[in-house]
Amino acid sequence: MSRPPELVISVPVCNESERIIACVDAIAVTLARRDRAGVVLLVNNSDDGSAKKAFLALAERGVTAIVIDTTLAPWMATAGWARRLTLDVAARWAHPDAVLMTTDADGRVAPDWAEANLDALAGGAHLVCGRIAVDAAEAALLPDSIAASAAIESAYRALSIELDARLDPRAHDPWPHHGLASGASLAIRARDYDAIGRMPPLACSEDRAFAALVECHDLFVRHSSAPLVTVSCRVHGRARGGMATAISARINDCDSFADASLLPAAITAHRARSRRDLRAAWRERGDVGRIMSGLGLSAAQARRAQHTATFGAQWVEVEAAAGCLGAPRMRPSDLARELPELRRLVEQARAAS
């Protein structure tokens, strides 16, 4: 490639020799007929030949790529650091106006995945969070004991996302949408990636923290269902605290903790209304202090929140200070008890919209 690429897909890899070929095959298809596109694979702390397999597969398919085989220090050998380093290499290689996309080594991007991400960015999004589907064949192998609790959690999550979207609508992320951020499908322009401070190097959940960071800068996050990635639902994963950890915990205890983002119905509604009201007051220079006082913030906390440069940063301050916006982590049994009230609130919001 004589000039820097205009699109780079980054993939952190750790002991994925059984799945990396399928990952590369899918990437090659989505990049077909794109001259200025490349791939960065950072293979870290692996001893199963993943780097060699990936390198040969990329070469055989004619994909321009950088493959890095490295050993990270134990404190850096995490999902967040691996994804950050992979994206950093991609950003340095790419043209300043290029688009960076990232996925997982156990994922298979859809043939139109790159195009769908580009379309969403062209439509005004700064970060595109794509849709994730679990591998149906692998899901069928999971114990039946977790099916019921998984169904409750899935239903509760969908209703929570809908309630939030209806009570606090955002034009750049119109309902319906899936409302989730996963490292298996993210897309952002290189200049925006650098401007917000790059991927947070967290041990896990770096993808959610990244989306929150984008919003903190008042940039637009679009939860688009068009870019699709199929991922593994294996029990023994590579990232601590990831999907595999959650599945394993649910197998051992069908009432193990649900996703930390799921909150009681009333609090979910209260958060959405509070964010909506604060955003309106921010835009219209309204009485932000009164709203913050109603949320229980002290005068000092309110002053600190009002001196932020963006609304996103203000919401972070308010969210951290307002105890009424949080709750202890719930279990599937808690979700089941809350479901009727959540459905009632959603139906109420539908009727009002």
Task: Give a quick rundown of the structure.
Helix content is 47%, strand content 14%. The protein is α/β, with parallel strands linked by helices and 353 residues long.
Average pLDDT level: 94
Task: Please indicate the count of domains.
Answer: 2
This entry's quaternary arrangement is single chain
Radius of gyration: 21 Å
Strand content: 5-15%
According to CATH, the homologous superfamily of the largest domain is Spore Coat Polysaccharide Biosynthesis Protein SpsA, Chain A
Largest sheet: 8 strands, mixed
- Order of strands across the widest beta sheet? 3-2-1-4-7-6-8-5
Helical fraction equals: 40-55%
Instruction: Please tally the helical runs, counting DSSP H or I stretches of 4 or more residues.
Output: 14
Q: What is the helix/strand order?
A: EHEHEHEEHEHHEHHEHHHHHH
According to CATH, the fold-level topology of the largest domain is Spore Coat Polysaccharide Biosynthesis Protein SpsA, Chain A
